[in-house]
Amino acid sequence: MSLIANWNFPTNIKIGPGSLKEIGQSCIDLKISEPLIVTDKNLQNNEIIQNLKNELTNSNFSLSVFSEVDTNPNDENLKEGLKKVRSGNFDGIIAFGGGSALDLGKLLAFMAVQELPVWEFEDLSDNWKKANNKGILPIIAIPTTAGTGSEVGRAGVLTDNLNKVKKVIFHPEMLPKRVICDPNLTLKLPKNLTAGTGMDAFAHCLEAYCSPGYHPMADGIALSGMKLVKENLIKAYENGENIEARTNMLSAALMGATAFQKGLGAIHALSHPIGAIYNTHHGTTNAVVMKKVIDFNKEHIKDRIEKLSMFLEIKNGFKGFTDYTQYLCKNLDIPGNLSEIGVKEDKLELIANMAIVDPTASGNPKELNFNNTLSLLKECL
Amino acid sequence: MSLIANWNFPTNIKIGPGSLKEIGQSCIDLKISEPLIVTDKNLQNNEIIQNLKNELTNSNFSLSVFSEVDTNPNDENLKEGLKKVRSGNFDGIIAFGGGSALDLGKLLAFMAVQELPVWEFEDLSDNWKKANNKGILPIIAIPTTAGTGSEVGRAGVLTDNLNKVKKVIFHPEMLPKRVICDPNLTLKLPKNLTAGTGMDAFAHCLEAYCSPGYHPMADGIALSGMKLVKENLIKAYENGENIEARTNMLSAALMGATAFQKGLGAIHALSHPIGAIYNTHHGTTNAVVMKKVIDFNKEHIKDRIEKLSMFLEIKNGFKGFTDYTQYLCKNLDIPGNLSEIGVKEDKLELIANMAIVDPTASGNPKELNFNNTLSLLKECL
Question: For the whole model, what pTM was predicted?
Answer without folding.
Answer: 0.96
